[in-house]
Design a protein that fits this description.
Chain lengths: ~575, ~675
């Protein structure tokens, strides 16, 4: 580790921190239906959409109505994307003439992009036409992110309201998130990306003659625009198979900074918007502090593990000065790789600028553990916030009792119904991750996937299901996931991780909105102080992470102790 | 059974032995299913026992190991049951004595209840009484059921219920008309209208409550059970899937070790102690001589935001007392005091006595010999008392009455006199005038005396985040003065029952929880509306029905203790939950390396405690998990110490003790047990 490395990390995080307040306030205004500086341009467009849809912009929904809206919209999204992928051979903008995507892969991909996972069982540049990339995948990059934001906003409103059963209107929140937040930011970021050298073209590929005299096909396409929403919407689905480690997707240090900044900014600012909507900015900073502490700890752990390197490599005479550089890009270096790997899994982004499979065992453990914690550091756009709210509810429940009052969070009593729903949501990750992994680790079709034997192979399986269930989408690499077994089970894990979580969360929102807000007193458990931040971290680690300890012990931890013993597979 | 009653020791054999038997009876899965965590433990224990038997018969496997695991899993279940049984046992003796008092009661039901002179009655068993029956009780009789006195005055010994042996007066009408079944009438007679069905009377409710037979889970207990069940499911998933992951890693885990891992991870500590905490909390309340109709009310008490307290009897002593004598110009202090003393000798009211006491204590005067002068007794009509001595009339009384006596209009009174009267009125006190002949001597300041120490209690409540509101029929000026002296946060002056009800509703609409106490029939609506309504045992039947708690000592300050007990129950639950969850970290470090060290010796690095062998590590974790329940039973019964220091400070303290303690304790405990296990060669 070097001070220059930490300085770079600090710089990017400081940039993100400086964006939190203005962006958070802007989003709070947008979702409260107030005027913003973009309203003169966007409001007529927004109204036009509502008129087209025959939507009353004042009509609000109950939690059930809201949830049905999310489910219906997502279901139609899967259908549409599946159709596009299956029919891409007949559709225009297919300069490379790609055939239809196979049924199981098309299903997996459709689910993957609608659930904001962006797990890719395929190589983008060798499978998807420009039409599929732009009209299929990119559209979902926008609206799946917007759905997440909408749900987070509905949850925020539930805390702000008292004695009502309405939590907002999904269609309006969806429209506003896309129109006022994602679109303008994506346009700006895409232009900057293009300026930084990302290709933005409808050409298919160029063929070049290399120095060795062989011809090489170089894939091209509308990458700058794709890359922008991939980061902003914490989607992570790359245009290229190797994602943001490819020199076209992420050509230099600046594009790397911008990528990390883009993926962290909206999720972090949404927490601030939450504080603004519920009327307690201190609460927002407390949640952000818990997120930041864990995230920085993770960055540090990866950075340390990677620079410490692999003793087996060292014994073989590899230059030790840079640490473990396998699978990393020299133009990013250790610090920016550590930051990217931690951020992409602390979020539910899933894009990578290095191959996580090539990280040292402990370096690889961090991204895996971050996903298993439920991606709340600060998490996917929207999903991070509502995931954190569930943890906060659990925290006040366990710890709040210790002050001798029935627990309350932001003035809302946490009772049996909320606990039931929160536990339902909490159960999803262990069920999907450990359940599928345990089966895949013993059946032949599952065992056919991992490229490596021993604990690393188990980590590959674990990582795949964690990534899917956590709607992260990053691949550990090494796992051949494009098989009917993995495509199907991973799709199921993605669906469960997204919707089996969203429905209880919205039900909690509905239940909280109905409750009267209890005014705080000195007898109330303070949820905006240092103590709460510490507790929240404890609960995230214990309730979110403890159940994965046995699995991690057999995966990365075992691999680590074996590495120290010099054993290879 | 007064509030100072000695809490039975946890190691009292009279409680422990029956509790041990009950703990075994409670193994019945139909009972145990109410407690999901312990139920799962029992199922797992059964499974391991069956496998152990199979291993014994076939000779395959390690029956010595799985047998010990099975035994300790059973101990875990029995210890959890034992905790509950001990908690229940502490109330049982009390319930028994109440039941004895109730047995074989007979009632004299009046045949012609409408004829007040006719005492013809039939004797029927008390259990066949119906609501609305009129019964006659005479000296020596046991009152057959709860009811209202409709005629007669009698002294009643209520010690069977309250533990207080001094008899109380019960009479028709007013606030002393309620009688409780099972209490004994000592003198005279009463006609009583029965108001509750047999089996639902106050004593029945009390028995049910103490025995825990009708115990229902409180809302927070339900929510906590859901959390614990959820955690159990999470760890069930983690343990079951571990089998597959271990197979991949070349280890075929046995059911016994998986069972051990599961039971140590699921929150058995809090799961086993949860109901004991609730029962013990109710029991503590009963020991404070408060009977709650439901656990829900006790829990709500912990959440109370606002306490509505009657001024009289709660905040002040209830009687106004003389606090100073203020002489007008030209009159000496001693002269005034002497006149005051003389004028008040014939005033037998509490106020009069307080004036005499003040004259003696602060002015060193002594009473003149009896028979000197002609006393004029105080009466409500004249509102004046005094003495005619040596032909001079000395009088004291209400200001306007004394002015009339001396034949002066208020405007004609000396300026100093009027100023003193106004000064007293401004501070909320009551001025009395003193005159000798036609000369006004001065003013007595009568004041509602705030109970000593009450201000500190309110400050403590404020630190807990609880507002206190004083309710009084006094005018706003008087009320404000007493409110500021007592340190309450707000007051409700000239309060009518309707205003009280409105105030409660308004507060509740703002999301606050209200507690109040009351005794009169006109308190009933407010008692019913309040989240915690404590009725006085001495109060009317209507009030007792409306509230959700009854204070047998009829002491309104009890409300504060009730709140503390409510908080203590919640705190104990939270602390033990935190402890239980924090324990898991150490258990992982004990068991995970033990499971896989045979296949991968390198994983021994995780064996940070340096436990002797894989088997002893697993066994030690299971033993620790079982024993910790027993170790924590006293804490569960006693409750976590409560201090009124505010939420943040409480949390810091409990987190340090139970959070950090929960993290560290099992590391030490498991290591010690492991040393013992290896020393005894159990494995």
């Amino acid at each position: 580790m070097t001070w220059q490395g930490w300085l770079q990390i600090g710089l990017v995080l400081a940039l993100v921190a400086s964006a939190i307040k203005p962006l958070g306030l802007y989003m709070a205004h947008v979702f409260e239906g107030e005027r913003t500086f973009l309203s003169p341009v966007l409001q007529p467009v927004e109204r036009g959409f509502y008129r087209l849809a025959g939507l009353d912009s004042r009509a609000e929904q109950t939690w059930l109505g809201y949830a049905m809206g999310v489910l219906l919209f997502s279901f139609l999204g899967v259908l549409l994307l599946y159709a596009i992928l299956r029919l891409q051979g007949f559709l225009p903008f297919n300069p490379q003439g790609f055939e239809a995507v196979a049924p199981d892969l098309a299903f997996n991909t459709a689910v993957s992009f609608v659930t904001n996972t962006n797990w890719q069982s395929y190589g983008g540049e060798t499978t998807m036409s420009h039409m599929s990339q732009m009209l299929g995948l990119t559209v979902q990059n926008f609206v799946s992110a917007a759905s997440g934001i909408a749900i987070a906003v509905a949850v925020s409103r539930a805390f702000a309201r008292s004695g009502v059963d309405r939590i907002g209107n999904f269609w309006i929140d969806l429209t506003r998130a896309t129109l006022y937040v994602l679109m303008p930011m994506a346009i700006v970021v895409a232009l900057v990306f293009a300026a930084l050298g990302l290709p933005q073209t409808l050409e298919g590929s160029v063929t070049a003659m290399t120095l060795e005299g062989v011809s090489q096909t170089i894939a091209m396409g509308p990458m700058a625009s794709q890359e922008a929403i991939k980061q902003l919407g914490t989607n992570g689905g790359g245009f290229m198979n190797v994602n943001a480690s490819h020199p076209f997707e992420n050509p230099n240090a600046f594009s790397n900074y911008l990528a990390i900044f883009s993926m962290l900014s909206i999720s972090s600012a949404l927490v601030y918007a939450f504080g603004q909507i519920v009327g307690s900015r201190r609460q927002a900073w407390a949640l952000l502090a818990a997120m930041a502490i864990l995230l920085v700890a993770g960055i540090g752990a990866i950075y340390w593990a990677e620079t410490a390197g692999n003793p087996i490599h060292l014994a073989a005479g590899v230059d030790a000065s840079l640490g473990n550089m396998e699978g990393k890009e020299i133009r990013f270096g250790q610090a920016m790789t550590a930051l990217y790997a931690a951020a992409t899994t602390g979020l539910s982004n899933g894009g990578v600028n290095a191959m996580h499979s090539s990280l040292t065992p402990l370096g690889g453990l961090v991204p895996l553990f971050f996903i298993q914690l439920g991606e709340v550091l600060p998490g996917g756009v929207g999903s991070g916030l509502y995931g954190m709210v569930v943890f906060a509810i659990l925290t006040v429940f366990v710890a709040g009792l210790m002050v001798g009052r029935t627990p309350e969070f932001l003035g809302k009593k946490i009772e049996a119904r909320e606990m039931k729903l929160a536990m339902l949501a909490i159960l999803i990750l262990p069920l999907a991750i450990l359940g599928f992994s345990a089966v895949a680790a013993v059946i032949p079709v599952g065992l056919a996937g991992p490229a490596n034997a021993g604990p690393h192979g188990l980590t590959e399986i674990l990582y795949a299901y964690s990534s899917a269930a956590g709607n992260n989408g990053s691949a550990f690499a090494g796992l051949s996931a494009n098989s009917p077994w993995y495509n199907t089970t991973l799709a199921l894990a993605m669906l469960a991780g997204r919707f089996a979580y969203i429905v209880p969360v919205l039900a909690i929102a509905g239940s909280l909105a109905k409750k009267t807000r209890v005014p705080a007193s000195s007898g109330t458990f303070p949820t905006d102080g240092v103590l709460f931040v510490g507790l929240l971290i404890g609960i995230i680690l214990i309730l979110g992470g403890l159940q994965f300890f046995p699995a991690l012990a057999l995966g990365p931890i075992l691999e680590h102790v074996l590495m120290l013993a010099g054993q290879t597979f | 059974m007064s509030s100072t009653a000695i809490t039975p020791s946890v190691v009292d054999p009279a409680i422990l032995l029956p509790a041990l038997r009950d703990a075994l009876v409670k193994l019945d899965p139909r009972q145990l299913v109410r407690n999901p965590v312990i139920f799962v433990t029992e199922v797992v224990a059964l499974l391991v026992t069956v496998l152990w038997a199979q291993e014994l018969l076939t000779g395959i496997g390690a029956p010595a190991f799985s047998g010990q695991i099975a035994a300790w899993l059973w101990f875990t279940v029995v210890f959890a049951n034992f905790a509950e049984a001990v908690a229940e046992g502490r109330g049982k003796a009390q319930a028994e004595s109440l039941k004895r008092g109730k047995a074989d009661l007979f009632a004299k039901r009046l045949l012609h209840p409408n004829d007040e002179a006719d005492t013809a009655s039939e004797v029927i068993p008390a259990i066949s009484l119906k609501v609305g029956d009129i019964v006659l009780v005479e000296a020596g009789d046991i009152i057959p059921g709860d009811g209202d006195v409709i005629a007669g005055v009698a002294s009643v010994n209520e010690s069977a219920v309250t533990g207080e042996s001094a008899p109380v007066i019960r009479e028709s009408g007013g606030d002393r008309s309620a009688v409780t079944g099972g209490t004994q009438i000592i003198s005279d007679w009463l006609r009583i209208r029965i108001t509750t069905r047999p089996g639902e009377s106050f004593v029945d409710r009390m028995i049910g409550l103490i025995e825990g037979a009708k115990r229902q889970k409180t809302p927070n207990e339900i929510a906590l059970s859901i959390l614990l069940s959820g955690l159990t499911l999470v760890f069930l998933i983690a343990v079951v899937t571990l089998y597959g992951l271990a197979l991949y890693s070349g280890t075929d885990l046995s059911v016994a070790v998986l069972a051990a891992l599961l039971v140590t991870l699921i929150p058995t500590t809090i799961g086993g102690l949860l109901s004991a905490i609730g029962i013990a909390g109710m029991d503590r309340l009963v020991r404070f001589n408060v009977v709650a109709t439901s656990g829900r009310a006790v829990e709500a008490a912990g959440d109370v935001d606002t306490l509505l307290l009657d001024k009289t009897g709660t905040i002040t002593f209830g009687n106004r007392m003389a606090s100073e004598f203020m002489a007008v110009e030209g009159v000496g202090e001693t002269e005034l005091a002497r006149a005051v003393l003389l004028a008040s000798l014939a005033d037998e009211t509490a106020e009069g006595r307080s004036i005499v006491a003040l004259a003696k204590s602060d002015y060193g005067l002594t009473e003149p010999p009896a028979g000197e002068g002609r006393p004029i007794a105080f009466s409500a009509q004249t509102r004046i008392s005094g003495i005619d001595i040596d032909g001079r009339p000395v009088r004291k009384g209400a200001v306007d009455a004394v002015l009339r006596f001396v034949g002066l209009d208020k405007s004609q009174a000396p300026a100093g006199f009027n100023a003193a009267v106004d000064a007293v009125a401004r501070t909320g006190g009551t001025p009395l005038a003193v005159a000798e002949g036609t000369r006004l001597l001065g003013v007595i300041h009568l004041k509602d005396v705030v109970k000593p120490g009450i201000k500190e209690r309110f400050a403590a409540l404020r630190a807990m985040g609880i507002r206190t509101v004083m309710v009084t029929g006094d005018n706003p000026v008087t009320a404000a003065a007493i409110a500021s002296e007592a340190g309450v946060d707000d007051f409700l002056a000239e309060a009518t029952p309707e205003q009280k009800l409105d105030y409660i509703r308004r507060e509740q609409q703002g999301g606050r929880l209200i507690a109040m106490c009351g005794d009169g029939t006109n308190d009933a609506p407010a008692l019913a509306q309040a989240d915690v309504g404590v009725a006085m045992q001495s109060g009317t039947q209507a009030a007792r029905e409306a509230g959700n708690m009854v204070d047998l000592d009829s002491s309104p300050t009890k409300l504060i203790e009730i709140v503390e007990i409510g908080k203590q129950i919640l705190m104990t639950r939270g602390s033990l939950t935190t402890f239980s969850i924090a324990n898991d970290v150490a258990k992982y470090f004990a068991i995970i390396p033990a499971l896989f060290v045979a296949t991968y010796p390198e994983l021994g690095a995780l064996n940070v405690m340096g436990l002797a062998s894989p088997q002893s590590a697993i066994l030690s974790a299971v033993i620790f998990n079982a024993l910790i329940i027993v170790v924590l039973i006293p804490l569960a019964l006693r409750g976590v110490a409560y201090r009124p220091v505010g939420a943040a400070a409480l949390l810091r303290r409990n987190l340090l003790v139970y959070g950090l303690g929960g993290l560290v304790a099992p590391f030490l405990g498991i290591k010690l047990i492991d040393l013992a296990v290896s020393a005894l060669n159990l494995i």
